[in-house]
Description:
This protein is of the alpha/beta class. It is 49% helix and 14% strand. The protein is built from twelve helices and eight strands.
Amino acid sequence: xxxxxxxxxxxxxxxxxxxxxxxxxxxxxxxxxxxxxxxxxxxxxxxxxxxxxxxxxxxxxxxxxxxxxxxxxxxxxxxxxxxxxxxxxxxxxxxxxxxxxxxxxxxxxxxxxxxxxxxxxxxxxxxxxxxxxxxxxxxxxxxxxxxxxxxxxxxxxxxxxxxxxxxxxxxxxxxxxxxxxxxxxxxxxxxxxxxxxxxxxxxxxxxxxxxxxxxxxxxxxxxxxxxxxxxxxxxxxxxxxxxxxxxxxxxxxxxxxxxxxxxxxxxxxxxxxxxxxxxxxxxxxxxxxxxxxxxxxxxxxxxxxxxxx
Length: 309
Ligand code: G3H
Ligand code: 13P
Ligand code: ZN
């Protein structure tokens, strides 16, 4: 099966009340762990590449790893640019075979975000590539959803119809209280489902994207802390909230920090238990297995997309 864009997967996800997992990839073990998990449970996938990941691993290497995963799994897989910050970067990824791109103009004034996003959409659609835009800004690492000053960062439902209509985007990332990284909430986790509901009413049938959706699984945080790490207070989005979002208009759920944590916790454990180990396969192999276990859990128990490939 060739690489696919996100049109079909989002249509089925919306209608079926589940979400597609969008997992960030940086290297071979991560690609293998994610795609082997998806193969076992027959789930569609989005593998996403940030500009940092593309610089780290090289566009061609990542594309070839993903092509290998397609051959090995025969699953519908989209390769997506995560947080594209310019037309030039999006164009380069489209020209290089990506099937989906995000243009993140969320930091720009509304009209400038529209102009940039529209320009990317025109180029992408001419090449069969789907586009994710963003309105509203995710809370930062020092997240405190209850602070009123942050209200300005939540997506404003009254803007979404105009943004989608004028840009022609295929999906929209929104800010409802999630944030990137491993420290998402200082107090109780709280997401603004009321905003999601309003947006869903204004854009019936339209796929919504949730960034910053790692759960920061406590077992991995404990493992990191036990084996020499230091991540006090790390906290993520509870899985029941993600399931609720997936049953609503959210069709794509972005997960990176959980993969990082699973990998780091596992490698720390190997080194703590066998300090003399220096064969990379002996720590990257277990890290890959742990990523596979984690992703399978997400696909089956959280996103609901197992069996939907
Ligand atoms: O949203 C950001 C992703 O977690 C990618 O992070 O830019 O460090 O690769 P990165
Ligand atoms: P996390 O940091 O919660 O994994 O979010 C990842 C993300 O949104 C990538 O775009
Ligand atoms: Zn993100």
